[in-house]
Every structure is written in structure tokens, then in C-alpha cells.
Amino acid sequence: MTTSPGIQIHSAPVPTEEEKHQMTLEALKSIDEGRVYSHKEVSAWLRSLGTANPLPRPHR
């Protein structure tokens, strides 16, 4: 792959299958514990970013 001068390409490590499995288990545990955000909350927050009055990040 060629790039223009001054452009750097960075890549993140690709998780292994075991790491993916562990992340899935952690996500399911978060759901079971009620640590989730509604689509409405997240959408409102995202739409507010870059505006004069951005909303605070949703949190629990």
C-alpha cells in the first residue's frame, strides 16, 4: 500500500477468538446488571456533539 507523504497508517491489534469470547461475556454481564443505555439517550447525546450546548455523556 502506498501513502502520500506525511500520512501514517496505524492498525489496532486484532483480538483472538478467546478475547472476543471474553468481551462478549463481559458485555452480557453488563446487560444483566442493567448497565445499558437506551438508543434514545445515546442518539440525543451524539446529535448534540459539536453543537453550542452538547449534552453530557450518558452514565449510570
Break the fold down into its secondary structure elements and pairings:
Layout: H1 17-32, H2 39-48
Q: Summed up, what is this model?
A:
The chain is an all-alpha fold. It is built from 2 helices and no strands.
Provide key terms for this protein.
single chain, 60 residues, mainly alpha, 43% helix, 0% strand
Give a verbal description of the structure:
With 60 residues, the chain is mainly alpha-helical. Helix content is 43%, strand content 0%. It is built from 2 helices and no strands. It has helices at residues 17-32, 39-48. The model has no long low-confidence stretch (mean pLDDT 91).
Described by strand count, sense and barrel closure, the largest sheet is: none
Q: Which stretches are low in confidence, meaning pLDDT under 50 for 5 or more residues running? A: none
- Give the mean pLDDT: 91
Q: Which series of helices and strands comes N to C?
A: HH
The N- to C-terminal Cα distance equals 44 Å
Helix content: 40-55%
Rg over alpha carbons = 18 Å
Structural class: mainly alpha
Number of helices: 2
**Strand coverage percent:** under 5%
Taken from the alpha-carbon principal axes, the silhouette is flat
The count of β-strands is 0
